[in-house]
Design a protein that fits this description.
InterPro entries: AraC_XylS_family_regulators, HTH_AraC. By secondary structure, this protein is of the alpha+beta class. The chain has a domain of 180 residues: Jelly Rolls (Sandwich). Helix content is 43%, strand content 19%.
Length: 315
């Protein structure tokens, strides 16, 4: 159960070194409008996110990781390596690969849509792997810790105002700590514009690499470079279409596979079915419909889903 819950943001494995130990976790999450807060107390584990999981999530958000007392985080992104102790935060980009070795203890994460945070900063910056330092960083850590403690007590209006204040503090510390090449941030913002267009036109028969290139004024090499972390433009579009078909089949009613295949740009039903099986591990006709929502008292042992909270950040 725990693996299915946390793998909505990253793949999780147990440490390879040391004696085997059972995994335990207590997880909670809050949606505060433009800011999402999630985390809890965990056993030691390794968290990784590669291009395939980033494509599955289909979100483009920043995340701050805040180790609480007795928890240390070893973070790796590309060639960058960071050790984050209690009293520090690190910025993470959910659209990019990363790995983190986490000690046992409490870890909180604060997630904000890229567009929201970028709008509060004077220029695009590459925040992936940034560990801010100095008095302002300490102030932000103190504020976020207090926010976590007070969240269960806040009304909806108080939570909204607290999230707005938190975002301004987060933007301030990001602006002060960011530097170097802004190109990754600019490319991420462009990729977000394109993926939003793709999501809105999954049933458009004209959706293709060429039409995207012309619409966004990009060369073929620039478009290729933007989507290389996601496996390429064609692979990304096909996976988003397949996930849309899966969502339709999981809903109520009966659906004609041939019609769904044609509407989502597949050459034939057989082509769609082969691709669907390769992605989900079963045929389209074997997709189970989602169960009806259970009363709150009956959901205690069900998986906590972060994906609806992440989707809410998209507006």
């Amino acid at each position: 159960m725990w693996r299915g819950t946390v793998s909505q943001l990253h793949e999780l494995t147990l440490p390879e070194d040391g004696p085997p130990a059972p995994f335990g976790a207590e997880v909670a999450a809050w949606s505060l409008g433009p800011l999402a807060v999630a985390g809890g107390v965990f056993s030691a584990r390794r968290m990784t996110r590669g291009p395939r999981l980033a494509r599955r999530l289909g979100v483009d958000h920043y995340r701050l990781l805040l180790p609480m007392e007795a928890s240390t985080l070893r973070f790796a992104a590309g060639e960058a390596r960071r050790v984050v102790a209690p009293g520090q935060v690190i910025f993470s980009d959910l659209a990019r690969p990363e790995a983190a070795d986490c000690g046992p203890g409490e870890l909180m994460q604060f997630i904000v849509a890229r567009d929201v945070l970028d709008a509060l900063m004077p220029r695009p910056s590459d925040l992936h792997g940034l560990v801010p330092e100095g008095p302002l960083a300490g102030l932000v850590v103190d504020h976020l810790r207090a926010l976590v403690r007070r969240l269960p007590e806040l009304s909806a209006e108080e939570a909204r105002r607290a999230s707005e204040a938190s975002l301004r503090l987060i933007a301030a510390v990001a602006q002060g700590g960011a530097g170097g090449d802004a190109r990754p941030a600019i490319e991420a913002a462009t990729r977000r514009r394109i993926t939003r267009h793709i999501e809105a036109h999954l049933t458009d028969p004209e959706l293709s690499q060429e039409t995207l290139r012309r619409r966004f004024g990009l060369s073929r090499s620039a478009l290729y470079r933007l989507f290389q972390p996601l496996g390429g433009v064609a692979a990304y579009v096909q996976e988003r279409r397949l996930r849309r078909i899966h969502a339709i089949l999981s809903g109520p009613g009966r659906h004609h596979l041939g019609t769904l295949s044609w509407q989502h740009g597949f050459a034939s039903q057989a082509h769609m079915s082969r691709s669907f099986r390769a992605l989900f591990g079963h045929a389209p006709r074997d997709t189970e419909q989602a169960p009806a929502p259970l009363p709150a008292a009956a959901t205690r042992d069900r998986l906590l889903s972060f994906e609806p909270i992440l989707r809410r950040l998209d507006g």
